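Dear U.,

For the methods section draft, I wanted the exact inputs and outputs in one place so we can describe them consistently. I've listed the two proteins in the order they'll appear in the manuscript figures. Please don't edit the token lines directly; just add comments below if something needs changing.

First protein:
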Amino acid sequence: MVVRGHGREWGRESVGSLEFLYGSPVDARALKNLLREEALTLGFGRVGFASCEPFADEADHLRQWLEEGGQALFPYLRADAMLDPGALFEGARTALVGYFPYARPEARPGALPGTLKVSRYLWGRDYHQILKARLQRLLERAQEAWPGLLGRVCVDTAPLLERQLASRAGLGWQGRHTLLIAGKAGSWGFLGSLLLDVELPVDPAFAGHHCGTCKACIEACPSGALSPFRLDPARCLTTYTVETEVEPPSEVARVLAESHWVAGCDICQEVCPWNRAPLWGDPGLWGGDSPLHTSPAELLPRATAQWQKLTRNSALRRVRHRHWIANLNRCNP
């Protein structure tokens, strides 16, 4: 049977154990269930679905953040684009949002004497490649089940308010450190989104937060970059070791030298009570130690060729060689 409606052809087809009636509410529920199951199979620890309506309630906060320093450090950010998923992908109606755990209990930056610290999210293979490949497989699966469906894969490089979208999808809340806390799964996870041009049933948004009166992250931040639910990028260590080559203020440079964070910083997550027993990442996927984590600071690579070889297929490759040298000189003067 084939029926035309809502700009699509309706028809029955069996995919696995599911029967779809294209374009119908039954079909939408079945497709959502199929994609959730597939995402969990692909390694996502949490999966939620949200509408792609603009984030009207975030407009004032985002523009203020940009005006107070964010725009100067990240000139490529545009509030209008970030506030509207539809501006990123025309026709976007539903977003699948996945939380993908990456940290491992045995992977502790600076654990060995004399080593510098590299943030956990930079260990192992490039997470952009890993998540994009899995989300692309989800998109292909969705297109098999619903012919004509279109979508876009987004993993952190797209101008999308990922944490707000994840909260809207019910995955968790933004903690006082501004990162997404996925409940008992913790905050050691990447976020990836799949924007779809079909309307699927959405999950209840996460309301409020479960940080209580805890201010551990704020009190532990060595550079004073955190205030409740707000990050000052001009004082964040990660800003200067990963995101920009701008010279840090003298106080931040001092903290970098004392704390030995050469790329990124995990302090606010290390002290978070929700990360005491989180959802850990797959050791086989994220790999083991490299010289970056096991070699004394004076033996870390400084030559361009050494750096390129060491960071091949790693998210740390985004840090240019000259930036890496500057980081080494700050942390190991």
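Second protein (the one for the lower panel):
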Amino acid sequence: MRCFSGVATAFLLAFAAGGALAGPDGPPDNRPVRAGRANQPDDWRLSAGSLVYESPGRDRVNIHRYDAGAAAPVRLTTHRARDQRPRWSPDGSKVAFHSDLAGSNDIYVIERDGSNLRRITDHPGQDTDPDWMPDGRLVFSSDRDGDENIYLLNLESGRLIQVTHYSGGRTGGPTAAGDGRRIAFSSDRLFSWQVYVLDLGNGEIERITGPLPGKCNPAWSPREDRIAFMSGGDLIGTDLRSARPDGSGTRSIGSGVSNNEDPQYSENGRRLVWVSDRDGNWEIYEADADGSGERRVSRTAADERHPDLFLGSPAGRD
């Protein structure tokens, strides 16, 4: 989700400027294709594991995967649509994302090689921001009830549960704790974007950021000890911070006078990835979970957004 009206939407406006995106143009071609723009040398330096991320083309935004040591990324989707916010499944075998492939945004899942595209939700409302629960359920935001709220979906039974019940404002960007009993999300329900934690057992919700506005897009470490989030706004730019689940111990992540956004921990909580525009376009960076040992991962002519890193040995490796 986009929590800021300026810098955060510039990415969408850049590729929307060429005109409205068309509908799907046939079945997806999942053969590996080089990411980035023609005649521009790309440089990828990922320390370990596999990254998924989104990157825009002239009339689309597609999902890509880069494996450490590979010569180039592979494109996992080729739809003429906006395929966004990819997230690895807990075992690294699948990727969930939202897409307007069929008109409104719905949740989709593919295998790690881009095959077996499945449409998980089918609703005229906007279903966005998917993430995986440790038990394999999906958590996402949706405005299907008229207001944007958080939902849990069991992929096996199809059971859908609404877990927040806000009226007015926006709510999204859910991320699960490693114990599967709590969910962090961001909301502007009090006219200011802040990060909240929901206890699924008793339904209690606690705000963990504030009082200054502009806190959003949380990422909960699987080790359960930290929640990373974006902080800032249009005039001062965005940076990354992390805090304990109760909101204490806040510290900064990332360096440089720039916008740092889209934080996400690896599935084991050892590494953190995000994007920064410090060199003119959105590139991926990685660091240890505490923000130390920062290094640039991508150097391309294209933009990369919403990276997610899997460090283990994925089931169904292609």
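Candidate sentences for the figure legend, describing the second protein: Confidence is low (pLDDT under 50) at residues 5-38. The chain has one domain: 7-310.

Thanks,
Y.
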